[in-house]
Amino acid sequence: MRTSENSADLVAAEDVLLFANAAITATGQREFRSGALDQQLSLDFLHTYVRVNYRRLYAASLALDINDHNAARIVLGLLATAGEASAEERRTEGRLIAARLARLPPQRVYRLFGEVRRAGINNRRTRAIMRDWLAARPDLGHDAVKYRSGVKTAARHVHLRCPQGAEPLAEVGAFLFRPGKLPRYEHPLLDAWRRAHYEQGAVAELPFTVAEGFAARHGMKREVFLKRAAPRMTRLERLRTHAVTQRPDVDLAAMPLTRLALYVLALPFERRAALRTELTGALRTAARRAAGKHAGSWGRVHAVLDDSFSSSGSGQKRRRPLAVALACHHLLEVLAAPGAYRGLWTSGRGDALLVRPWGPTPLGMRVLDALEPGPGGAEPDRLVIVSDGWDNAPAGLAGEVLRVWRARLDPGRRTAVVHVNPVYDADGFDVRRLAVGVPTAGIRDAEDLPALVEIARFAEGRTGAAELHAYLDRRVALFLGEKATEKEAVA
Q: Rounded to whole angstroms, how far apart are CA atoms 373 and 285?
């Protein structure tokens, strides 16, 4: 009986790790080797399987570094199946859902509320969660202008009371449900929206995404509009328009590391070379910020970074795998001890700033190079492989090299090996692995690398299910005890 219980715990641990990898990497969009429908069907199965069999762990995954797409799916699944949970589970789920919604970008939450309404989920807990989130918004008038249909849908679903009179909520109600009834609004953004229909000067007072439509209606020149709208842009909006405006006040170093890497890879080679000092400095600054307290703590680090043709991603996730590798390259340089980092690209290039998706994936050859001792004859303390796992030149060499290395040359595990994979394999319901004994974790943003390396050790088989459950409990406790609005600040 004891053996059977242990086996069940191990299966549960494996299932949870598999789901965590999927929830971190998969977004239901097309990848290089699989279509969007395959991705969506694979995710549908995983979400249903884990929610039905491991509901507590399914809810606890909201505390992990999963992507926003899967966080919203988990919230929707928990709300839709509230009758399957006990009273205690519903209380815990409610706290996790509220904490996760506070961390999601507002546009994602309003989209989720729309799905809740379409699914007919209208129980008391759901309405309370939606009301609390709306009440916590710093400026509902701003949301009414920027996310008008989303606010309107949410307000209808929870029967939000919008009293008559001059109260802020009354103005929002009039704006949403009785447009044109008030001659003017006290809220500056609501009134700017009213005036922007006939007054070109009011366009620059609106949020950028709303102002774009009015600018086109008034026939404003793009360059003039961007210059006027710049003070009200978010950091990401400034980054997206930087190539057009070339404004010197765009602080690239303030951008999230992976987002900045995507921007760098979108630039032509000539532009990258011309801005080498600025771009490299920004990437290193963003990497130091992402490393935080972990900076310099990883000892000697060697990395194998995949810049093969498959790192070009897809039309929906253009160059995403390569951007993750480039961001990890700079982050690992900061995590390693000073002067103790060595990064090897599969193409053999030595200039990280000018990488591009090209050629096959000779992971095995690069792993051999990475396991070579560094300066002074010292072996690396860590080997980190950033790749989609499609080792094809020759096929399977990387897994064989790592197997022989571990069995014959490093049975004492002096070198910790971890593989992080930015691409979800829909057919395998997981990220593709290099070898059985190599811990593998899915990754979407390089900033999550330190936490993912920690969770990847559970996949190595040297820790049990009890340790994994204890880890999840710690993450949940930490998650519920923090205030997190950072994502919202850059949305």
A: 29
